[in-house]
Every structure is written in structure tokens, then in C-alpha cells.
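Input record (one chain):
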Amino acid sequence: MRSALGTVSRFIAGYPGLGRCNPVAAASFNSRYLSSQPPPKDTQKELAESITKEVAVRQSLETMLKDVDKFRSLPRDQIEQLWADFHKDKPFSLAGKPLDPISWIKLKERATASSFFVLPVVRSKDSFFVLLTEYKEEFVLMTFLDDYRRIGANASPWCSIRFFPEIEHLALVQTKFSPYLTRDDASRLTEQWIKFYTEDKLFENVFRFNKKPETFDFNSTFSDVINGKP
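The corresponding structure, as predicted from the sequence alone:
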């Protein structure tokens, strides 16, 4: 992940994972915010580190599928099913919901102009931590925010989202994640990140984070997510 620049960088450095907060709400959030690294899930640390390195690897369709040309020629519903089947037995990757061309173009334009954001991961009703996300060239990297604040661009990615827009009538979505996250974590992060960049009202928060970070309010943006509401 490259270094965040300008006001976004100052925002990230200036507060431990929470943006500009209402003081009363921040008090309850602070008591639940995890600033230490959560342990890997279901694996030893050495294996976790090895898998984490794979999160940032960008693969092409040609390296993953045997007959890409045939795959591209199939009807949309068959492509979606085959893409889901391809990932179902892979422990640290999953298939996201494909995007239609209009949604993909909107997402790409917005993410190119506003490439950074933050997303909370709720570990339990009593705790959560925050990931910093960055989009670049059809690829999203997410890293533990406190690692980024300590070591900047050297922070290891915990999750990545890869988009494959080369199929004519849809853009495929693939998520890879490290053992520091669960499969459900990765699925929710993928869904939330796409929603924040494609839904107009939600994107206002992304825009503020990148262009007017002094106006970004973490509490109002994520209160429902952190408090377990749908």
C-alpha cells in the first residue's frame, strides 16, 4: 500500500482509527476499539504470514482458468455460478457479487478519484478494529490501520479485492484475505466497500474522507455497523 498523502495522511496519523468524533459517542467507541493486532484465525502465526503475502498477488483470469475464451462466451448466470464454484473450496479467497457495467464504471471513476477509505471490522459486540483501504487500477488493498500508522506503506495487506472487467457484460469480483480475518469478515468488507463507492449517499462519506477529511465523522458513518445493526 502506497503512502497516503496530504490531509488524508494527517487525518490517519492524528487519531487512532476514528476520525472526527462526537465526544460522547467517541468515549464508548474508544473503549471498544482494538489498537493491538487481533490474533490469526485457525492457523499458526508462520502460516498466517505466508498466506498474508498472497493477498497482494494480482492474478489474471488466464492464470486461474483453463479455458478463458470459453468462459467469457457463456451466459451471465453460468459465469456467476462457475466463478462461485471456483472459489468455494479455497480457504482464503471468495467470489464477490459481479458488477454490471454501469456500476463498475461508476465505482472505477469514484475510486480512482477518492482512493482511500476506512472500514471497521466488528469482532464482537464489545470490540472492533479498523482497516485502511486503497484502490489502484482495479485492485483494492486493505491493511490494519494501526499497522499503517506505525510503518506506513510497509504494512502488510489483510484483504484485497480484485475486479475483472474484461468480460463484456459484467465485472467479476474476487476477494483474498489473511487468517487475521474470517471468511465472513472478508465477505462483509467486500460488500461494504463496494456499497460505499456505488451508492450515492454512502459515497458522500468517501468523498469527505479523501477531499475534506476534517469533516469526516467516523461515528455517524459507521455507528450502525459497529453496534450490530443491519
